[in-house]
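Q: Predict the assembly, please.
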Amino acid sequence: MADIETKESAYVVDKLIAEDIDSYLDQHEHKTMLRFITCGSVDDGKSTLIGRLLYDSKMIFEDQLDALASDSKKVGTQGQEIDFALLVDGLAAEREQGITIDVAYRFFNTEKRKFIVADCPGHEQYTRNMVTGASTSDLAVILIDARKGVLVQTRRHSYICKLLGVKNIVLAVNKMDLVDYSQEVFDKILADYRAFAESIGIANFTAMPISGYKGDNITTLSENTPWYTAPEYAGVPLIEHLETVEVLTSDDADKPFRMPVQWVNRPNLDFRGFSGQIATGVVKPKDKIRVLPSGKTSTVSKIVTFDGELEEAGAGQSVTICFEDEIDCSRGSVISIADAPPQTADQFESTFVWMADEAMVPGRAYWMKIGTQMVSASVAEPKYEINVNTMEELAAKTLELNSIGVAEMTTDKQIVFEPYTENRQLGGFILIDKMTNATVAAGMINFSLRRSQNVHWQAVDISRTQHAALKNQKPAVLWFTGLSGSGKSTIANMVEKKLHRMNRHTFLLDGDNVRHGLNKDLGFTESDRIENIRRVGEVSKLMTDAGLIVITAFISPFQADRELVRAMLPEGEFLEVFIDTPLKVAEARDVKGLYKKARAGELKNFTGIDSPYEAPRNPEIRVDTTKLSPEEAADLIVDTLLGDV
Amino acid sequence: MKKLTHLERLEAESIQIIREVAAEADKPVMLYSVGKDSAVMLHLARKAFYPSPPPFPLLHVDTTWKFKAMYDLRDKMAEMSGMELLVYNNPEAKEKGINPFDHGSLHTDMWKTEGLKQALDKYGFDAAFGGARRDEEKSRAKERIFSFRTSSHGWDPKNQRPELWNLYNAKKARGESIRVFPISNWTELDVWQYIRLENIPIVPLYFAEKRPTFEWEGGLFMADDPERLEKVLGYMPEITEKSIRFRTLGCFPLTGAVESEASTLTEVIQETLLTTTSERQGRVIDKDAGGAGMEVKKQQGYF
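A: Predicted assembly structure:
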């Protein structure tokens, strides 16, 4: 972070603006746009480079310079000199700490392009921010301090760019002024980087020797690096490269047509259109299209916009498409060219970047947003975690904040997708925690698992309705949840006896009993407990298919897991029964002596002691055991269940 | 296929954002301040849902101290877009006669910050569009497009959700809300160019004209309502006719005018490009609390 050496040329406005504003504006209306990220370590001079780009393209105003001068004296790291890092470091808290802690977006224009810069911090703990910045970038500028060469951070930044599919890479060897503009130093760094880049599959990159501080090779070729014009080098200043580089994501237009539907446009009975932003390809009226996941086909009748109907629309455009036939299509559907549709599946291998303080919980159900589809998804224990510094694959039980790993995942229904390397929009997704609503991970689908394509539902002739009709009852799951010793098993037993006497066909699944058989391979870690609940949920579901009333008695401490089971069953068949006994009371009873053991440290992960219990927020039935006897509780539950039948 | 220009890419992105909110929020609203950024945002909303009108109302959190020309355009645009217009005045500020002369920053707190919170709570809106841009001010550069607010409308800059690709997480608990900034990635020049390209109506105050002005605390202001001015100032300021225009529009006593001869859109753009001070300088609000003015305001719930 250094001040910028200012030249007298810094604030010269474009002559055309003063002389012929109309031509200037016409020219600027036809500019293209490039989004790029800058990545570098703390002292690589990243903020200075961005300050330089803004300054040289006249994006810094006099009043901002004045404010900067006074800020620099107060909190700057450059003594009495102007500290340009302050210009690009935003929030007050960060300014005081002297670090950049988030992604900030900067804007500047040249005659040919508009630029959006994602300014990403280089600190180890902020992988998440770089991934965020890279996800929308067409190009990455990777900064290297010429004195230090290729560092661990350089590898990490390059790997993340590769992972996120950023295809244009600029290797900016900065601070060349501090190594006397040495060609030898530059060549050494170039060779080191090339060897590394090839090892991770980066085939092309453009290297340039620069100084953000002095302005060498930023807007014009520097006299200090005459050797840079030799044919083996790019031989262009940074700005010129950014202005002219072909944006590779624009090849999205050459791929088959796909558009995720955002919104059904239905102003009146005569108009029904589907609004969305075209992900890839081109669409024209009369094109045969297919709607996924239903697979129904039709023909495009018109492409509607505020500015009139279009003869053609392509990748990146937001449009509204109408069909010739009334076929089923809604938010979450993907409209595709009829003869080359994307795949659908419900099991995948994906690469995850974990973004939350709370680590991944294998087996837990998260919301998954992919395109405009929102589904429930659970992630298996990672196959491996990737050490982003060495690219090694490490064994992992979970993924922590800022870690990257590969795992299999399952969605609760078929989704329309393409591998991320083929299509960013249909292969990139986020995971959302169902309790906190936080975005906890970014993911990229690598491929679907063969088994999900080969396992099909077998149609059976006797339906669940017929099973239930024969038993003359409505199937249901009474899902008891509560602390150990709250009285779940006692009350559940009474409920089953009462129902049995009323000629109801029931089955009681008890926690301890299931663990002796079906789930005897599972322990008591968080992920095993989730798997325990998932299996019990699946068994319960099979039993309701058979027409039974299922009663389960498990602690099931996590709301997300109970919601997972609820989601497996038809609406209204899952009744959450909260056996509400305060910890104090349950611990005082301690029928099995478990609390005592847990307090003594002999039992780990014991709910209520060193593992949390998330009480149901809206249970169908709540039993306050400090007010009701087990007998009264059982009556309440049976009455509620049968009142519902 | 021809390549999209930067304005076409920005437009498509903003439309995608606006549609996501309409699809995922329970009760969205568009905040409409009648300024040029609001004008662009409203235009984009009309484009996003055409031929339907935008499926949410417009909300103007009014301070009663706006320029007359702003109220005129507001009513005209609401009618043109076929959207319901809701106008909210904080009753407490009204009762206490809060004004920009006597009450300084309390004026903004009461009418705008408090007024906005009250209006959102009153109607139960869970998502509100705003026309803020990241290039306006430093703390905005890091703001998300979907900015999550607690049930008391607070903004915690350390606890914002990461935004990847064009995937926005609009999930929230009851009582919580989001602010959405669909033109985050537009610069001032983009906004002007788009207004020119699309012929979007804006308040005539952006164009220079001879107007009655007075000087107050070192700034140049327009005497939009002299009688009301005299009442709150306690004296009739000296009013002189000058050719002025406004670079931003807020409450008339808080928004400084600049002397200018730029009377057409093109001249205004030209002057903007040639100017050497940043856009918000004419507004008093950013100077409160040193450089962190806007950030503090935002944590309190200002847009």
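Residues 3 and 9 of chain B are 10 Å apart (CA to CA). Chain B touches chain A through 67 residues (CB under 8 Å).
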